[in-house]
Amino acid sequence: MTEARNLYDALVRPIGEAPQKQSLIIVRDGPLHLVPFDGLREASGRYVAETRTVIYSPSATTFYLLTEQKPRPRIAKTALLAIGGIPYSRSPMNRSGLTRGYDRGGFVDMPSSADEVRIAQAAFAKKETKVLLGPSATEAAFKAAGLSEYRVIHLAVHGFADSTFPDRAALVLLSDRLAGEDGFLQASEIVQLRLDADLVILSACDTAVGPLRGQEGIANLSKAFLLAGARMVVPQDVG
After folding, report:
1. Which of 18, 146, 183, 201 could form an SS bridge with 154, CB 3.0 to 4.6 Å?
2. Rounded distance, CA 41 to CA 6, Å?
């Protein structure tokens, strides 16, 4: 509690406390990438998240590029694409050398991710949604889903950041040998996607954490989706 208050006094208080809820855009540097500014306490005892909408930008460069770009013509017409409920324990990926190459012994199932997808789907008219659930949640199916057609993309999957090789940060879907896809949707692949999403939700491990790269901040999956055309990315680390 004391540390959170000290951090607030040093980093946020000089800006001045907001008389009413307003946006606070934060570009973090170095170890500050690991500080949840939303959870710092103001002098009043309230959390920053109670008085301000906290928006994180991966870097000053990214913020500039996203705010200065010309308005794009709207392409997305369908409400939601959601992916989850992947049977990792039965996947050939857990029996191959792929996971060892990513310093993982394997991927456990995420039973609640299927429910998460269904809850997300229930927020929209069913005809306005597409769901890749269970065995259908392959990397090939995701790439072939017409990604630019969706306003919201929700991925409830495993994910991780590689601190040694930033471009190997990946979301873990299912492999498809016939399509030549290994199941690892890497950051280097994500930036090549064509998106028109207002919101991308990454409900996965390590999606907000990556190697620190100086003034460019964190090279991570969230930034990759922004560069691919998403207007906002919300990473949720489910551990």
Report:
1. 201
2. 9
d(CA 68, CA 57): 14
Same domain (yes/no): 51, 87: no
**pLDDT tens readout for residues 53-73:** 888 887 778 777 777 766 667
26-45: per-residue pLDDT in tens?
A: 887 777 877 888 888 888 88
- Residues 163 and 211: beta-carbon distance below 8 Å: yes
Structural domain boundaries enclosing 1: 1-68
First to last CA, the chain: 23
Strand partners, 6: none
Rounded Cα distance, 128 and 82, in Å: 11
138 shares its domain with 216: yes
Q: What is the pTM of this model?
A: 0.78
Are 169 and 120 within 8 A, CB to CB? Answer: no
The total domain count for the chain is: 2
Asked whether residue 28 falls in the same domain as residue 142, the answer is: no
State the Cα–Cα distance between residues 112 and 96, nearest whole angstrom: 25
Distance CA 49, CA 40 (A): 8
